[in-house]
Fold this sequence. Notes:
Helix 1 crosses helix 15 (about 330-385), helix 2 packs across helix 15 and helix 3 packs across helix 13. The chain starts with a strand and ends in an 11-residue tail after the last helix. The protein has 15 helices and 2 strands. It has helices spanning about 20-25, 30-50, 65-85, 90-100, 110-130, 135-160, 175-180, 185-195, 210-220, 225-255, 260, 270-280, 290-315, 320-325, 330-385, and strands at about 1-5, 10-15. It is globular, with a radius of gyration of 23 Å. It is mainly alpha-helical. The protein has a domain at about 55-215 and about 260-325. Strands 1-2 form a two-stranded antiparallel ribbon.
Amino acid sequence: KMFHFARGFPPFFIxxxxxxxxxxxxxxxxxxxxxxxxxxxSMVKVGTIARTGLTIGVAGQPSKGxxxxxxxxxxxxxxxxxxxxxxxxxxxxxxxxxxxxxxxGDGPIPYRLAVLxxxxxxxxxxxxxxxxxxxxxxxxxxxxxxxxxxxxSIKYIAASGFGYLFPVWNKGGAFVRIVSGTATMGTxxxxxxxxxxxxxxxxxxxxxxxxxLTHHLKLMDIVKKGRGIGHAALVAAFATGFCVxxxxxxxxxxxxxxxxxxxxxxxxxxxxxxxxxxxxxxxSERTVFDPQKMSxxxxxxVQAAILALVRSRVTWWPLHPLGLAFQNTIGLQFYAxxxxxxxxxxxxxxxxxxxxxxxxxxxxxxxxxxxxxxxxGVGMLVDFIWFPGAGHLIHDx
Length: 397
């Protein structure tokens, strides 16, 4: 359900999901507070900008409400990634030394193999973007923006337990179009940028699955024998799942007709992607570099840097820059209420009972996740047996 505060303001989603509450209980209080606080603050920002009619940008290419807030968020997300890399500089130096000297390390994968794999992936991804039609400089810019988006989502999903952290502007293509402009881009650049930035190229909800690889490797740290079997099982599971899903979709497309499935993957998604590409090509007025929008982007980065610096110096500081970086994304907007409930419950438990009460409450929150998943499974089984072909919507985003 949605609640509208006033005209021009984004709706407040009244949605409580047990899995979000159960898993985010493990998240720190400052992250939980920052999530719901900045989500509500972004609603106030967007609504106030809409009601006042504020725009930024050079003549003929203004940005309004959500786009202005997204510029701020993307700048914050970029600085947050740079800050994370900077704080890990000693570890990265140790990894490079181990790779250069041939030390295997104590992880499930040798450092040299990991760095080599990263290099191969970067070269392959760069070549793929160029083959789509991008110029090499644009492909490099898109690749860097993709790294920022993936890094921010994967690191902080794993750190927070909140699985609905979608990066601002997906993989950053919108930032290139909005800030850098399209005046210097050719037709192939525009088409390739739209395709590369679409959810189809490992975007959208697919980004959230990347962090499972880090969990797999972390679990392999405690496995001393049979690591090869574990890695092989992971590859086999991925290949099997991919083949089954692809075969199922193809079968139903031929059996029922793709348009009748009403699936985002075969209906709204492609229409939006190719429709947006066609609109970009037909737009006769190209945009140019916009210093005003870049200023808002830099302002977001400065805010994130200040929050990160204060947080590292003041132990009681309650705001984490992560909330600013994801303030206007769909995950926080949808589940601000669930996060607030978790934050309030955890705050009361810790303040009244201390660490012992926090540990005692864990089984309850784990139970909300298990109970909800069991309920969804039972509902699917009931639909399969008693309502074949006429099932009910049990779980949604």
